[in-house]
Write a structure and sequence with these properties.
alpha/beta; seven-stranded mixed β-sheet; globular; disordered N terminus
Length: about 290
């Protein structure tokens, strides 16, 4: 009886301490086992492509992107390549001019199509690339062309000039409408009657284009770390799926971000969405 009371007392003490501990995040492997940041760095350094899936307004995602990039820059030097969904392919020239010091940041900001959270979330990555002389690739399709697919399907791209087609994946685009991620887009809650059959195709052309520019800019013996919304690589679909079609032997590591009421254990529904999963409290503040 005495041992039982002692055991119960210890359990309550542990629970009390845990309730007072407020971790900003917890890192898990795909099976839901806790891992540390060093394990992630080691695995990322051994990959050819790292797809870092973020929540666009989540500060933990962006902080860990920066810290992982710093670690990889230290290990790989100029064999590291960085790239992001947040830059469209037709902005590569101006991005290169800024990274090489040819133009000022003021001119870069004025002429590039920067996201509204550039200052807080994206700029630190760009500045790291600039300081370390690391290539940074604008991987995304121009948004006007993604909108064209949403309006007219893939056929709408056929009317583009040959110059315009340089900024998208080679046509025709391979597309599997049965992929769960694309099918789910047709049943998104809160938008009945506003989703047409071309919306998943617009997502696919983004995924295919990002995969195309990642693959085109791989550095032999190096690592390409790519920053994208988690939905672009979750469940080994999206960009991952298209990269596998370009080269089934690529060593690809995926990272995803999830929000949970508690981060002490990975929820069952979040297991398996990526090789590494960053669990963040739902109460975490947003950057925008």
């Amino acid at each position: 009886m005495k041992k039982a009371i002692i055991g119960l007392t210890l359990l309550l003490a542990v629970q009390t301490v845990a309730s007072q501990h407020l971790p900003a995040y917890q890192l898990f492997n795909k099976n839901g086992r806790e891992v540390n940041f060093g394990k992630l760095v080691k695995r990322a350094a051994d990959a050819q492509v790292v797809l870092f899936g973020e929540f666009h307004n989540n500060p933990i995602s962006h902080w860990l992107q920066l810290e992982l990039s710093r670690e990889l820059a230290g290990k790989k030097g100029q064999n590291l390549v960085m790239g992001a969904e947040m830059f469209e392919a037709d902005n590569q020239l101006i991005l290169n001019e800024y990274l090489s010091g040819l133009i000022t940041e003021r001119n870069f900001r004025a002429e590039a199509k920067l996201w509204r959270n550039y200052e807080t979330d994206i700029r630190p990555l760009v500045e790291l690339a600039r300081e370390r002389n690391i290539p940074f690739v604008a991987t995304n399709i121009p948004r006007r062309h993604a909108a064209l697919v949403n309006q007219r399907g893939f056929e709408g791209l056929d009317a583009l000039s040959e110059e315009a087609k340089l900024y998208i994946a080679p046509l025709p685009i391979e597309y599997d409408p049965e992929l769960p991620g694309y099918k789910a887009m047709l049943n998104m809650p809160g938008m009945p009657g506003h989703i047409g059959p071309n919306l998943p195709k617009a997502q696919a052309i983004k995924d295919a284009t990002m995969a195309h520019f990642i693959y085109q800019n791989l550095n032999p013996g190096g690592v390409f770390i790519h920053f994208n919304g988690a939905y672009h690589s979750n469940n080994f679909e999206g960009i991952y799926w298209y990269l596998r079609r370009l080269n089934p032997n690529l060593r690809i590591l995926t990272i995803s971000t999830v929000e949970q009421d508690s981060v002490f254990e990975l929820e069952e529904g979040n297991k398996g969405v990526a090789n590494f999963i960053i669990a963040v409290p739902k109460t975490m503040t947003k950057t925008h």
